[in-house]
Amino acid sequence: MFWKKFVITLFIFILILLYRAYVVFAPDKTIFEPCSSTNDNHSLEFNEQRLRTFQTLLQFQTISYEENNQNFTELKRCRNFIKQHYDDLITKYSKFVQLHDIAEYSLLYEIRGKNSNLKPFLLSSHLDVVPTGNLSRWKYPPFDGHSDGQLIYARGTLDDKGNVFTMMEALKEYLNVHGQPSRTFYIGLTHDEEVARAGAMGIAKYLSKQSFGRDGQFEFVLDEGTIILEEAFPTLHNPIAIIGVAEKGYMTIEYSISLPPGHSSMPTAPTAIGILAHAVDKLESTLQPSQFGRGPEINLLHSITPYLKFPLRLALSNIWLFGYLIQLALAQKPGTNALQRTTSAVTLISGGQTENILPTSASATINHRIHTADSCKKILENNRRIINDDRIVPRVKTCTEPSPSSPYGKDVYSYRIIEQTIRQTFDKDRQPIIVVPGLMLGATDSRSYTKLSKNLYRFSPFIYHHDDLDRLHGDNERMTHRDVQRGLNFYFHLIVNNQLDHIPESKLNTEL
Ligand SMILES: [Zn+2]
């Protein structure tokens, strides 16, 4: 009798798992439907002339070291080059195109639309780059903009001059092909995204003074951000385009300790350095709690689940049962681990005065990227418990809370337009692309634009291959010619698609 009941229960249990995997998480058939581009078959080529422009842009050494410590001479040259190179847009279309200088080195292009009832949108990217690191590890000098015919090597290709260049070229093409748009839009090029926010704050301030810039009047803001991944999940062969709908917070804390001095010939242990080292070890070896299921990562997994193969599909469609195992699997790689929790990185340490005196003080700096379900206060408290030593005193150097999540899905016009434009651009020459909402792990300028719109998205239209994530802020940063071409077409079509006066919600999927 018991065994009979057991077998029936087990059978029902397996049925539920399979039902969820194959019925609840059935593939969305429409997702792979090609976009019937009725009004827009235009295509941009990444030709010789464009390559030379991109290379020139990459050759400016617009390095940001820290706040107020940037290569301002090069930033000025870079800004002047852009102004001059795209000057004909201002002269030719002076009736509706204007350029605003912002915060001395940043630029804001304003393209006024014919229909003032349509809410404007803002595209944002940045001109500054991080330092190059050890030059000997670079295959080609990082500011040569060397092209081998397939790849362009330079600091700033992926982050973020690729976006700057493709946005500006798309704008030029759009104006030359279509003239004045219906919808007003802006292109913001900031100069200090890597170290500060003066450029983005300046743009936000300027726009907030316009009649439509207040109270979230922008349709959407699109900033640099999450990217397209290939072969990112086992058994999934479709590329995944991740639109960042939220962004992690950022907090830096300095921990320090002070003790009375002593002679190193009669040492007492532990010293200030020893105590601090112990705390650093605890901070590094104790993970912040997993927030799996409480942020956008759950939507990302749900969106790809229907396209996975058994048994991964079974597991991801039954997170209620396999959630803990999935957490463990995500923790295996730094990239996926960062999706589910606040990360901790000890980045600076100092201590001691001279070689024959016991150290009286020591300090270490820890940088956290805060998951959307955590907060600065919560992490500070977690650290206090982890260190568990009152002699070590924290000082919060910077704290930016994680962003709220922007709306996404079929019913959100601006999300849908970006999603469709991604498919329109990337479906042509590869496997159908899956577009999912996701979490941006780094911090972007979009933090400064929260008052303009609740629809803040972060996306860079480039495909990242296996080791490209290491090249970001690392050595041998590079971009393929094909990616540049796709970027050109993505921004061009994004501008075109946003000019439609009205799109019935139900037709969004096929009418672009
Ligand atoms: Zn960037």
From TrEMBL:
Keywords: Hydrolase, Metal-binding, Protease, Zinc. Pathway: Lipid metabolism; fatty acid metabolism. It catalyses: N-octadecanoyl-L-phenylalanine + H2O = octadecanoate + L-phenylalanine; N-(9Z-octadecenoyl)-L-serine + H2O = L-serine + (9Z)-octadecenoate; N-hexadecanoyl-L-phenylalanine + H2O = hexadecanoate + L-phenylalanine; an N-acyl-L-amino acid + H2O = an L-alpha-amino acid + a carboxylate. It comes from the Eukaryota. It holds the Pfam family Peptidase_M20. Gene3D superfamilies: 1.10.150.900, 3.30.70.360, Zn peptidases. GO terms for molecular function: aminoacylase activity; metal ion binding; peptidase activity. InterPro entries: Bact_exopeptidase_dim_dom, Pept_M20A, Peptidase_M20, Peptidase_M20_dimer. Residues 246-389 form the Peptidase M20 dimerisation domain. Secreted enzyme that regulates the endogenous N-fatty acyl amino acid (NAAs) tissue and circulating levels by functioning as a bidirectional NAA synthase/hydrolase. It condenses free fatty acids and free amino acids to generate NAAs and bidirectionally catalyzes the reverse hydrolysis reaction. Some of these NAAs stimulate oxidative metabolism via mitochondrial uncoupling, increasing energy expenditure in a UPC1-independent manner. Thereby, this secreted protein may indirectly regulate whole body energy expenditure. Belongs to the peptidase M20A family. This is Peptidase M20 dimerisation domain-containing protein.
